[in-house]
Give the backbone structure.
Amino acid sequence: MKPHLEHRDAPNSDDGVTGCERALVETMTGSASDIADAVENLLAMLLAKVDRYSHHSTDGVILEWQEVTPRGAWCVGTVVMIDGQLVEPFRLDVSLDPPGAGIESGVIRFGDADAPAIEYGSSRHERMVKRILADPRCEFRWKLRFSRGPQGWRGTGSTKRGH
């Protein structure tokens, strides 16, 4: 069953996403330093648009690999969810607009649709981290995919592996 995603007419209207994007841009342009917090806040805001997640359902992001430049950011890691202290993999890839003032495009992939619930600190969590570290571009059958375009962020349910 695909999750219901709420779409708003106005891109990023009054939903906190704009502020979260701004914080992420600031980490890429050097005016802020903690990309993990910026990624977590943006992901939490996007997950809040999915009917099965609460307004702030995350309890931290653990970056396993990251590349940050003034033109964009790419990172992969795990998200600790508040409910049950379960972990989910994620990948973020964003590009800034030419002046570096905002996000021009981006994709955030979240959750492994094939894995049962994985508890933080468990041996399955360790195996997932080892898999990510061995191949930071490894693919999962992602539960959710959020894409950033001219109209703001849009989400889709379970994606096919590699997309």
